[in-house]
Amino acid sequence: MAHGAEFDAIRDLLAEWGPLASGIGDDAAVLDVPTGERVVISTDASIEEVHFRRAWLTAEEIGARAAAAALSDLAAMASVPRGLLLSLGVPESWRTSLTQIARGVGRVAASVECPIVGGNVSSADALSLTFTVVGSALSPMRRRGAKSGDIIFVTGTFGGPGAALGALMEGRTPADAHRRRFAAPAPRIAEARWLSEQRAVAGIDISDGLRGDAEHLARASEVSLVLNGSSAPRVAGVTAAEALASGEEYELLVAFRPDELPDRSEFERRFGLPLTAIGVAVPAGDDPVVITDVGVEPGGGFDHLRR
Amino acid sequence: MAHGAEFDAIRDLLAEWGPLASGIGDDAAVLDVPTGERVVISTDASIEEVHFRRAWLTAEEIGARAAAAALSDLAAMASVPRGLLLSLGVPESWRTSLTQIARGVGRVAASVECPIVGGNVSSADALSLTFTVVGSALSPMRRRGAKSGDIIFVTGTFGGPGAALGALMEGRTPADAHRRRFAAPAPRIAEARWLSEQRAVAGIDISDGLRGDAEHLARASEVSLVLNGSSAPRVAGVTAAEALASGEEYELLVAFRPDELPDRSEFERRFGLPLTAIGVAVPAGDDPVVITDVGVEPGGGFDHLRR
What is the pLDDT of residue B297? Predict the structure, then answer.
């Protein structure tokens, strides 16, 4: 893209974002975080043909989904978003869709009150959206921190993105409920803050799949997790094993001390989402994650943990 | 790139960076900035065939140059680097060069004491390096802040990158001195901090060319700049007009009040670089930048400003 065309593209983006885009015009953005809070920062790329295909999503969905995926990393750290920066690689064939992409980004950023503070636009062979998200927290939630005896919870309902992706890869039309979870994930920012305030001791967002991210938390915390594979709520039409493998859920997996469990009905009332106990941390064994009872109906395990 | 290959690539990068890479392993990096300082953040992409060609540079130079370009935005804001994140798009044909790219990134990051705190790796059709750089400053330098009567200075010696790029585009071998300035720019972090401490009132780094970036500063400050086009030091073999147009210099252009000029010999002693008065700010006119006396030898203008 010629230099002038880049400026035109940036002008289109800023017009779409309006007051949501702030402080743009210097070589860098300037942000303030409350005194005593730590800065939390992550970068995340969505690339056409690697992370999504054009035929699967509208331009607005592509923007929204990529923004949600990036902001989910701030949720994983129980941080308040302070700003995002977007580096766009734009092929000529996408140029006219830029405003819709920006609309999707803006909608998700606005939903978590995250100003858009910078970015850049380059020409490219494939559409790419590289987000940097900046947040802050007094005490960011970490993957490490779970101890043997802790109870493991997840937010939300699993399996939709995996089922939708499976259908799309096979050229089938995904079920509406599955497609919605795939195309319009929500970063669980407010949920994570609440869970952290309720003394969650470790957490992660579920991007690689419940099982895979449980492994990440287990390794960082130097424990093993025993999970009841069928106790995580799941969308209609998926098996427990599919729900455990489904990636890009952007739900949260968190650990609580057994004597400081969160009030799940309060969580559900506040956020309209289930919060479900799915397992327990045990001393580190050969396998970081052990799945038990696949096939048992949700609620069949860990019922003694409900309160 | 398959998930496992991405992990392998990340392992190679971390092995190359050693202790320079810190705090990696959570969903986001956690940084602290000194109490009272503001967070300064910028994102910058270098894409093969857009910003560079493979034949022009070694892999290590590609990494170093892209890192320097990104960190230069922190220099432009007179900020102390606190961390950088690198999002890499890596085609299969570049996979074996990743360690050398990382070496170049690491060398430049270490030169300004900037830890590498996060990033990600994706497969891609073209090599791309998207950096996010985070710094802090009590009072970040801005493009705005120059007033009529201010004296405009630049660091360094101009024209090298433009001459090298011109030669490369025409298939010629650039002169060594030109190529060095093109392939191995240095972010002027320490220089910018010193200039800011000496009461520079506005500043910008020179990525689009001295003339172009002077325009950016003039517009942001709502003044016009009258520049003596031949007074900026330049490398052998380039004209004053070529020096004004040469981009990717990553030198600094700063404004000082006429009664608070910096000690240029002290600057040159500290940094081994010239600091040169090249013009003056005047009330905003039709043209944000007016070039005078192109063709006059360096030092021919603004001599009355020297001290």
Answer: 39
Rounded CA-CA distance B63/A27 in Å is: 21
Closest CA to B29 of A83, A70, A200, A38: A38
Q: Which residues of A touch B79 (CB under 8 A)?
A: 28
Q: Tell me what ipTM this predicted complex has.
A: 0.86
Q: Do A43 and B132 touch (CB under 8 A)?
A: yes
Pair of tokens at residue A171: 């050229």
Amino acid found at B133: V
Distance CA A141, CA B30 (A): 10
- Residue B41 to residue A143, Cβ atoms within 8 A: no
> Contact, A22 vs A115, CB < 8 A?
yes
Alpha-carbon distance values, B55 to A282, B48, B98, B169, B171 (Å): 54, 10, 16, 11, 10
pLDDT of residue A296: 39
Res B2: pLDDT: 59
Helices A264-271 and A189-197 pack at an angle, to 10 degrees, of 150
Hey, are the CB atoms on A28 and B128 less than 8 Å from each other? no
* Contact between A278 and A154 (Cβ < 8 Å): yes
Contacts (Cβ under 8 Å, ≥6 apart) of A133? A41, A42, A43, A44, A70, A71, A73, A74, A81, A83, A84, A114, B28
DSSP structure class, residue B296: B
Across the beta sheet with B252-256, the strand order is B202-205, B252-256, B151-155, B275-283, B223-228, B289-292
The one-letter code for the residue type at A11 is R
- Write out pLDDT tens, residues A180-227: 999 999 999 999 999 999 999 999 999 999 999 999 999 999 999 999
Domains of chain A: 3-137 (3.30.1330.10), 151-305 (3.90.650.10)
Whether the CB-CB separation of A278 and A237 falls below 8 Å is answered with no
pTM for the predicted model, two decimal places: 0.89
Return all residues near B85 (Cβ < 8 A) that are at least 6 apart.
Answer: A41, A42, A43, A132, B29, B116, B117, B118, B119, B131, B132, B134
Cβ separation of B27 and A89 shorter than 8 Å?
Answer: no
Return the ∠ at Cα A235 (arms to A178 and A299), rounded to 5°. Answer: 165
Q: How confident is the model at residue A297 (pLDDT cuts 50, 70, 90)?
A: very low
Distance, CA of A176 to CA of A48 (rounded, Å): 23
Residue to substitute from B41, B80, B249, interface A, most A β-carbons within 10 A: B41
pLDDT value at residue B229? 87
* Option in B28, B40, B135 nearest A76 (CB): B28
Minimum distance, in Å, between the CA of residue A27 and any CA atom of chain B: 5
- Residue A259 φ/ψ region, left for φ over 0, alpha for ψ in the -120 to 50 degree band, beta for the rest: alpha
CA dihedral over A30, A33, A38, A43, signed as positive or negative: negative
Beta strands A223-228; A289-292: pairing state: parallel
